[in-house]
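Document type: protein sequence-to-structure record

Subject area: structural biology

Format: plain text, a pair of labelled lines:
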Amino acid sequence: MIDILAPLRFPSNRDYSLHGTARETAIEAGLASADWYRTPVDRKVMKELMKRSDGPALRDTAIWIALLLLTGALGVALWGSWWAVPVFAIYGVLYGSAADSRWHEMGHGTAFKTRWMNDVVYEFASFLMMRNSVVWRWSHSRHHTDTIIVGRDPEISLMRPPQLILLVLKTVGITAIPSELAKLISHARGKLSEDEADYVPQTEWHRAFLVARIHVAIYAAVVLACLFTWSLLPAMLIGLPRAYGVWFLIVVGLPQHAGLAEDVLDHRLNARTVLMSAPVRFIYSNMNYHVEHHMFPMVPYHALPRLHEVVRHDCPAPCPSLFAAWWEIMPALLRQLRDPDYFIVKSLPPSANHQAQP
């Protein structure tokens, strides 16, 4: 598969591919599929936290879908006037950002108690995000197995030195559609990249190709609808929101791991928890509690605030706001431009288990 973003990437002394020298280094160092540190939690407490229920996810999914339908209908009704701009701005965030956390939670299979409900919303959210649901399910499984392990994790968003040009382009959505569509078209042609073939079992390839062909067919129909109506409106509803609505995801999502340690087996050191307001947490499905999520990925999103209170004595202090998180991240990224070995060292509280820290 051709990497259309390759010309925008700077040379790096780290090989972030899954088939290069870093892969072998990680395996030899015992970092691949390793045992991770987890804060000890009473079994009864953890059992309660892991309890699944359809109720919270049904409520939140219904609200999300209703808001999508409402803003989409308003956008159509107001099309051609300036009033459509703020409406589509909201629609875009619900489509191109809120869908990401739904894709994520349903992919873990923990949001709903009923399995088919997870699967239906997962497929829908994957389509909105232009993600092959089969490929990304295995990609994210590897991300949790080898979180920010260079040569193993396919979902490292900010490499060293950081690609700040790409970061800016991603925020305004310029790279999202060309990059993701190129992957889907490649899958539809029956091809996986070398990295994708590393973590997607061969038995799943045919499903990945089928899903891609369905997605590409829908997007082709949207293009034809635009040509037939001589209007951009169909694409404003399906496809383009993946670009113009993704900025919110970049702002709230990149702090998950940005600027933190690579190649460590302690999520307290390579993930970041950020305190956010209730509306933002609704859009983001509580993924701001990211240390907690990585430590215990089978805890449903609606229980993460409670899990945070249970383990906070053993974790770095959370960033008190998104502004504080980015205030911490940006100087680190700028320093990594000249010193790629630099990273933010998270301080553990006196009550924490420091022996787990390398």
